[in-house]
Design brief:
single chain; elongated; about 55% helix; mainly alpha; 4 helices
Length: about 190
């Protein structure tokens, strides 16, 4: 029995290098999901923690703090892996150098947050004061905290969208992606 392929249809097979790149990009989608789901579950189950009031880094305090520390470390490592995949997928293209570097720095920052515990504050964590020193009202704190969380959320969205886009293009053999296969073109040349 002979198998025929349609002329003009790009090959869906990936080289080993393309598979590695796609795998690395997949970590970008997972990193934000793991981070946010972990914080949501911890926030809903940890006694005294309020998602709308407390910083996620406060979850690293107390007997279950190891969960948040692991969340920071794993999410940071996945973000760095995604940055490596972005560098591979975007090599020689606009943003292909500094974009992945900045994402890697973001991932390293997450890992550093896992290694450096936040001081207990706002009544959460063993020995926590009722408020954070230097902050007089919740509105003052929200002026600092909300833009930070918005920036993190925007970064996760950007990483996820870019990862999905590059992941989808990585195995298609499209010209100009830097990931095209080395076989003949669809016209047989």
């Amino acid at each position: 029995m002979t198998t025929q392929t349609a002329v003009g249809t790009p090959s869906r097979t990936c080289t080993p290098a393309q598979r590695v790149t796609r795998s690395l990009l997949g970590y970008g989608v997972l990193a934000g999901t793991v981070f946010e789901v972990s914080i949501l579950i911890q926030g809903l189950t940890r006694h005294g923690f309020r998602l709308a009031h407390h910083d996620a880094s406060l979850l690293s305090n107390g007997p279950l703090g190891w969960i948040q520390i692991a969340t920071f470390l794993v999410s940071g490592a996945m973000t760095i892996a995604c940055a490596v995949g972005m560098r591979r997928a975007m090599a020689g293209r606009a943003g292909g150098t500094w974009g992945p570097r900045l994402i890697a720095i973001f991932g390293a920052g997450l890992m550093a947050a896992g290694l450096l515990r936040a001081d207990p504050a706002y009544g959460f964590g063993p020995g926590a004061p009722a408020a954070f020193a230097g902050v007089t009202t919740g509105s003052d704190a929200s002026a600092i905290v909300l833009p930070f969380y918005a920036g993190v959320l925007i970064a996760w969205i950007w990483i996820a969208v870019t990862s999905v886009y590059l992941y989808r293009r990585a195995g298609t053999g499209l010209a100009g992606t830097g990931l095209a296969g080395t076989g003949p073109d669809p016209a047989g040349h």
